[in-house]
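Researcher: Before we compare anything, I want clean individual predictions. No alignment, no superposition, just each chain on its own. First chain goes here; please echo the sequence and then give the C-alpha coordinates.
Model: Echoing the first chain and its structure:
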Amino acid sequence: MNDAVSERLTSQNLSGVARERLLRLIAQGALAPGTRINEVHVAERFGISRGPLREAARALEGEGVLISRPRQGFFVVQFTQSQIVDVYESKRWLEAAFIADIATHMQPAVRREVQADIESIEVADRFAFSETLLQFRMRLCARTHNRFLAELMLMLYRKFYIIGSVVAVGRSQGRQERILSVLHRFWQAMADEEISTAHAIMEEDTAYWLADLPPRFPETLMW
Protein backbone atom coordinates (compact mmCIF):
# COMPACT_ATOMS: atom_id res chain seq x y z
CA MET A 1 0.00 0.00 0.00
CA ASN A 2 1.46 3.39 -0.96
CA ASP A 3 1.84 6.25 1.48
CA ALA A 4 -0.97 8.34 -0.07
CA VAL A 5 -3.54 5.57 0.35
CA SER A 6 -2.31 4.86 3.87
CA GLU A 7 -2.63 8.53 4.78
CA ARG A 8 -6.21 8.69 3.43
CA LEU A 9 -7.23 5.61 5.41
CA THR A 10 -5.71 7.06 8.56
CA SER A 11 -7.58 10.33 8.02
CA GLN A 12 -10.86 8.48 7.43
CA ASN A 13 -10.37 6.43 10.59
CA LEU A 14 -9.68 9.56 12.62
CA SER A 15 -12.70 11.38 11.22
CA GLY A 16 -14.89 8.36 11.96
CA VAL A 17 -13.72 8.26 15.57
CA ALA A 18 -14.18 12.04 15.83
CA ARG A 19 -17.73 11.74 14.49
CA GLU A 20 -18.57 9.16 17.13
CA ARG A 21 -17.05 11.22 19.93
CA LEU A 22 -18.84 14.39 18.80
CA LEU A 23 -22.13 12.49 18.80
CA ARG A 24 -21.43 11.21 22.28
CA LEU A 25 -20.74 14.74 23.54
CA ILE A 26 -24.03 15.89 22.01
CA ALA A 27 -25.96 12.92 23.42
CA GLN A 28 -24.44 13.52 26.86
CA GLY A 29 -25.44 17.20 26.78
CA ALA A 30 -21.86 18.46 26.78
CA LEU A 31 -22.61 20.12 23.43
CA ALA A 32 -26.13 21.50 23.74
CA PRO A 33 -28.36 22.52 20.81
CA GLY A 34 -27.15 25.80 19.35
CA THR A 35 -23.62 25.35 20.68
CA ARG A 36 -20.79 26.38 18.36
CA ILE A 37 -18.14 23.70 17.85
CA ASN A 38 -14.84 25.23 18.90
CA GLU A 39 -12.63 23.35 16.46
CA VAL A 40 -9.36 24.21 18.19
CA HIS A 41 -10.50 23.10 21.64
CA VAL A 42 -12.34 20.00 20.45
CA ALA A 43 -9.42 18.88 18.27
CA GLU A 44 -7.06 19.29 21.22
CA ARG A 45 -9.46 17.38 23.45
CA PHE A 46 -9.61 14.51 20.94
CA GLY A 47 -5.86 14.60 20.33
CA ILE A 48 -6.25 15.06 16.56
CA SER A 49 -5.68 17.78 13.98
CA ARG A 50 -8.49 20.04 12.78
CA GLY A 51 -8.62 18.29 9.37
CA PRO A 52 -10.23 15.02 10.56
CA LEU A 53 -12.44 16.99 12.95
CA ARG A 54 -13.77 19.08 10.07
CA GLU A 55 -14.41 15.92 8.06
CA ALA A 56 -16.38 14.55 11.02
CA ALA A 57 -18.30 17.81 11.35
CA ARG A 58 -19.16 17.80 7.64
CA ALA A 59 -20.39 14.21 7.95
CA LEU A 60 -22.63 15.19 10.86
CA GLU A 61 -23.83 18.20 8.90
CA GLY A 62 -24.86 15.82 6.12
CA GLU A 63 -26.77 13.76 8.69
CA GLY A 64 -28.51 16.89 10.01
CA VAL A 65 -26.90 16.85 13.46
CA LEU A 66 -24.76 19.95 12.84
CA ILE A 67 -25.29 23.04 10.71
CA SER A 68 -22.64 25.36 9.32
CA ARG A 69 -22.71 29.12 8.94
CA PRO A 70 -20.36 31.14 6.72
CA ARG A 71 -17.32 32.43 8.62
CA GLN A 72 -18.75 31.10 11.90
CA GLY A 73 -18.21 27.35 11.76
CA PHE A 74 -20.36 24.43 12.87
CA PHE A 75 -23.20 24.50 15.38
CA VAL A 76 -25.30 21.78 17.00
CA VAL A 77 -28.71 21.81 15.34
CA GLN A 78 -31.66 23.36 17.17
CA PHE A 79 -35.37 22.67 16.85
CA THR A 80 -38.37 24.72 17.91
CA GLN A 81 -41.48 23.31 19.54
CA SER A 82 -43.46 23.79 16.33
CA GLN A 83 -40.85 21.90 14.30
CA ILE A 84 -41.04 18.96 16.70
CA VAL A 85 -44.84 18.97 16.46
CA ASP A 86 -44.58 18.96 12.66
CA VAL A 87 -42.30 15.92 12.74
CA TYR A 88 -44.56 13.89 15.02
CA GLU A 89 -47.75 14.86 13.23
CA SER A 90 -46.09 13.61 10.03
CA LYS A 91 -45.20 10.42 11.91
CA ARG A 92 -48.93 9.72 12.33
CA TRP A 93 -49.68 10.09 8.61
CA LEU A 94 -46.65 8.21 7.35
CA GLU A 95 -47.05 5.31 9.75
CA ALA A 96 -50.65 4.81 8.62
CA ALA A 97 -49.38 4.34 5.04
CA PHE A 98 -46.48 2.23 6.31
CA ILE A 99 -48.79 -0.16 8.16
CA ALA A 100 -50.95 -0.49 5.04
CA ASP A 101 -47.84 -1.31 2.99
CA ILE A 102 -46.74 -4.00 5.46
CA ALA A 103 -50.23 -5.49 5.72
CA THR A 104 -50.52 -5.72 1.95
CA HIS A 105 -47.05 -6.72 0.84
CA MET A 106 -44.96 -8.12 3.71
CA GLN A 107 -45.43 -11.83 4.32
CA PRO A 108 -45.96 -13.01 7.94
CA ALA A 109 -42.62 -14.86 7.91
CA VAL A 110 -40.80 -11.64 6.97
CA ARG A 111 -42.66 -9.75 9.69
CA ARG A 112 -41.37 -12.28 12.20
CA GLU A 113 -37.85 -11.76 10.85
CA VAL A 114 -38.21 -8.03 11.47
CA GLN A 115 -39.55 -8.76 14.95
CA ALA A 116 -36.48 -10.90 15.71
CA ASP A 117 -34.19 -8.16 14.35
CA ILE A 118 -35.28 -5.87 17.20
CA GLU A 119 -32.81 -7.81 19.35
CA SER A 120 -29.96 -6.27 17.32
CA ILE A 121 -30.64 -2.88 18.92
CA GLU A 122 -27.99 -2.25 21.56
CA VAL A 123 -28.85 -0.72 24.93
CA ALA A 124 -25.34 -0.28 26.32
CA ASP A 125 -25.64 3.50 26.21
CA ARG A 126 -27.62 6.26 24.53
CA PHE A 127 -25.22 6.57 21.60
CA ALA A 128 -25.13 2.85 20.82
CA PHE A 129 -28.91 2.68 21.12
CA SER A 130 -29.49 5.55 18.69
CA GLU A 131 -27.01 4.18 16.16
CA THR A 132 -28.30 0.61 16.17
CA LEU A 133 -31.94 1.73 16.23
CA LEU A 134 -31.32 3.73 13.06
CA GLN A 135 -29.58 0.75 11.45
CA PHE A 136 -32.58 -1.44 12.32
CA ARG A 137 -34.93 1.11 10.76
CA MET A 138 -32.78 1.38 7.63
CA ARG A 139 -33.00 -2.39 7.16
CA LEU A 140 -36.76 -2.13 7.64
CA CYS A 141 -37.03 0.54 4.94
CA ALA A 142 -35.10 -1.73 2.59
CA ARG A 143 -37.92 -4.28 3.02
CA THR A 144 -40.70 -1.75 2.33
CA HIS A 145 -42.56 -2.45 -0.89
CA ASN A 146 -43.40 1.13 -1.92
CA ARG A 147 -40.00 2.71 -2.56
CA PHE A 148 -41.22 6.29 -2.35
CA LEU A 149 -42.81 5.54 1.02
CA ALA A 150 -39.52 3.88 2.07
CA GLU A 151 -37.66 7.11 1.25
CA LEU A 152 -40.12 9.15 3.30
CA MET A 153 -39.90 6.76 6.24
CA LEU A 154 -36.11 6.87 6.12
CA MET A 155 -36.24 10.67 6.22
CA LEU A 156 -38.54 10.44 9.24
CA TYR A 157 -36.29 7.93 10.99
CA ARG A 158 -33.22 10.09 10.39
CA LYS A 159 -35.09 13.02 11.91
CA PHE A 160 -35.88 10.87 14.97
CA TYR A 161 -32.17 10.03 15.18
CA ILE A 162 -31.21 13.70 15.18
CA ILE A 163 -33.87 14.66 17.72
CA GLY A 164 -32.80 11.76 19.92
CA SER A 165 -29.21 13.00 19.79
CA VAL A 166 -29.92 16.59 20.85
CA VAL A 167 -32.93 16.32 23.18
CA ALA A 168 -32.17 16.90 26.85
CA VAL A 169 -33.33 13.97 28.97
CA GLY A 170 -32.55 12.97 32.52
CA ARG A 171 -32.93 9.21 32.25
CA SER A 172 -32.38 7.90 28.74
CA GLN A 173 -32.74 4.25 29.81
CA GLY A 174 -36.44 4.70 30.45
CA ARG A 175 -36.90 6.19 26.99
CA GLN A 176 -35.00 3.31 25.41
CA GLU A 177 -37.18 0.79 27.23
CA ARG A 178 -40.30 2.56 25.99
CA ILE A 179 -39.13 2.59 22.36
CA LEU A 180 -38.21 -1.11 22.48
CA SER A 181 -41.53 -1.97 24.14
CA VAL A 182 -43.44 -0.19 21.39
CA LEU A 183 -41.41 -1.96 18.70
CA HIS A 184 -42.02 -5.37 20.25
CA ARG A 185 -45.74 -4.75 20.69
CA PHE A 186 -46.16 -3.32 17.21
CA TRP A 187 -44.36 -6.12 15.40
CA GLN A 188 -46.13 -8.75 17.49
CA ALA A 189 -49.43 -7.25 16.36
CA MET A 190 -48.26 -7.21 12.75
CA ALA A 191 -47.04 -10.82 12.98
CA ASP A 192 -50.46 -11.79 14.38
CA GLU A 193 -52.14 -9.74 11.62
CA GLU A 194 -53.90 -7.60 14.21
CA ILE A 195 -53.73 -4.46 12.08
CA SER A 196 -56.12 -2.34 14.16
CA THR A 197 -54.03 -3.09 17.25
CA ALA A 198 -50.87 -2.05 15.39
CA HIS A 199 -52.53 1.26 14.44
CA ALA A 200 -53.57 1.85 18.06
CA ILE A 201 -50.04 1.18 19.33
CA MET A 202 -48.57 3.75 16.96
CA GLU A 203 -51.30 6.31 17.70
CA GLU A 204 -50.56 5.94 21.40
CA ASP A 205 -46.84 6.28 20.73
CA THR A 206 -47.29 9.46 18.69
CA ALA A 207 -49.50 10.99 21.38
CA TYR A 208 -46.86 10.22 24.00
CA TRP A 209 -44.05 11.93 22.11
CA LEU A 210 -46.21 14.92 21.19
CA ALA A 211 -46.84 15.45 24.91
CA ASP A 212 -43.25 14.75 25.96
CA LEU A 213 -40.94 16.34 23.41
CA PRO A 214 -42.12 19.85 22.41
CA PRO A 215 -41.77 21.32 25.93
CA ARG A 216 -38.10 20.30 25.88
CA PHE A 217 -37.41 22.73 23.01
CA PRO A 218 -37.71 26.52 22.79
CA GLU A 219 -40.81 28.10 21.25
CA THR A 220 -38.63 30.16 18.89
CA LEU A 221 -34.93 30.33 18.07
CA MET A 222 -32.96 33.43 18.98
CA TRP A 223 -29.81 34.05 16.97
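Researcher: Okay. Second chain, same rules.
Model: Second chain and its structure:
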Amino acid sequence: MAPRIFTLLYLLAMVVAGWRLFRIGWPRGAKIATGLALLLPVPLMLLLPALRHPDRAFADILRGLGLALLLCGALCMAGGVAAAWFKGRKA
Protein backbone atom coordinates (compact mmCIF):
# COMPACT_ATOMS: atom_id res chain seq x y z
CA MET A 1 0.00 0.00 0.00
CA ALA A 2 2.77 2.46 0.89
CA PRO A 3 4.56 2.24 -2.52
CA ARG A 4 1.31 3.12 -4.28
CA ILE A 5 0.76 6.14 -2.06
CA PHE A 6 4.38 7.23 -2.57
CA THR A 7 4.06 6.90 -6.34
CA LEU A 8 0.76 8.79 -6.36
CA LEU A 9 2.23 11.61 -4.25
CA TYR A 10 5.30 11.82 -6.50
CA LEU A 11 3.21 12.07 -9.67
CA LEU A 12 0.84 14.59 -8.09
CA ALA A 13 3.84 16.64 -6.97
CA MET A 14 5.13 16.64 -10.57
CA VAL A 15 1.79 17.98 -11.84
CA VAL A 16 1.85 20.75 -9.23
CA ALA A 17 5.53 21.51 -9.93
CA GLY A 18 4.85 21.80 -13.66
CA TRP A 19 1.94 24.13 -12.97
CA ARG A 20 3.96 26.36 -10.62
CA LEU A 21 7.04 26.42 -12.85
CA PHE A 22 4.94 27.66 -15.76
CA ARG A 23 3.41 30.45 -13.68
CA ILE A 24 6.74 31.72 -12.22
CA GLY A 25 8.38 34.58 -14.10
CA TRP A 26 11.85 33.00 -14.24
CA PRO A 27 13.95 32.63 -17.40
CA ARG A 28 13.27 29.45 -19.36
CA GLY A 29 16.67 27.92 -18.53
CA ALA A 30 16.08 28.32 -14.79
CA LYS A 31 12.65 26.70 -15.12
CA ILE A 32 14.10 23.73 -17.01
CA ALA A 33 16.93 23.28 -14.51
CA THR A 34 14.50 23.46 -11.59
CA GLY A 35 12.15 21.02 -13.28
CA LEU A 36 14.97 18.53 -13.80
CA ALA A 37 16.13 18.97 -10.21
CA LEU A 38 12.62 18.13 -9.03
CA LEU A 39 12.06 15.29 -11.49
CA LEU A 40 15.28 13.27 -11.30
CA PRO A 41 15.98 12.34 -7.63
CA VAL A 42 13.25 9.73 -7.11
CA PRO A 43 13.81 7.76 -10.36
CA LEU A 44 17.57 7.93 -9.85
CA MET A 45 17.18 6.16 -6.49
CA LEU A 46 16.01 3.16 -8.51
CA LEU A 47 18.16 3.58 -11.61
CA LEU A 48 21.59 4.13 -10.09
CA PRO A 49 21.83 0.86 -8.13
CA ALA A 50 20.56 -1.07 -11.15
CA LEU A 51 23.07 0.59 -13.47
CA ARG A 52 26.01 0.26 -11.07
CA HIS A 53 25.40 -3.45 -10.42
CA PRO A 54 23.60 -4.92 -13.44
CA ASP A 55 24.48 -8.48 -12.44
CA ARG A 56 22.60 -8.39 -9.13
CA ALA A 57 19.17 -9.87 -8.65
CA PHE A 58 16.24 -7.63 -9.60
CA ALA A 59 18.46 -5.08 -11.38
CA ASP A 60 16.30 -5.34 -14.49
CA ILE A 61 13.15 -4.73 -12.44
CA LEU A 62 14.70 -1.70 -10.74
CA ARG A 63 15.82 -0.33 -14.08
CA GLY A 64 12.35 -0.76 -15.55
CA LEU A 65 10.65 0.84 -12.56
CA GLY A 66 13.09 3.75 -12.58
CA LEU A 67 12.58 4.42 -16.28
CA ALA A 68 8.80 4.14 -15.94
CA LEU A 69 8.81 6.55 -13.00
CA LEU A 70 11.01 8.97 -14.92
CA LEU A 71 8.75 8.87 -17.97
CA CYS A 72 5.53 9.18 -15.97
CA GLY A 73 6.96 11.99 -13.87
CA ALA A 74 8.00 13.90 -17.00
CA LEU A 75 4.55 13.39 -18.52
CA CYS A 76 2.86 14.59 -15.32
CA MET A 77 5.07 17.67 -15.21
CA ALA A 78 4.30 18.39 -18.85
CA GLY A 79 0.61 17.92 -18.04
CA GLY A 80 0.87 20.51 -15.28
CA VAL A 81 2.55 22.93 -17.67
CA ALA A 82 -0.13 22.32 -20.31
CA ALA A 83 -2.94 22.81 -17.79
CA ALA A 84 -1.44 26.11 -16.59
CA TRP A 85 -0.93 27.22 -20.20
CA PHE A 86 -4.55 26.45 -21.13
CA LYS A 87 -5.87 28.18 -18.02
CA GLY A 88 -3.74 31.25 -18.70
CA ARG A 89 -4.80 31.28 -22.33
CA LYS A 90 -8.53 31.41 -21.53
CA ALA A 91 -8.20 34.33 -19.13
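Researcher: What stands out in the second chain?
Model: The chain has a mean pLDDT of 93. Additionally, The two ends are 40 Å apart (CA to CA).
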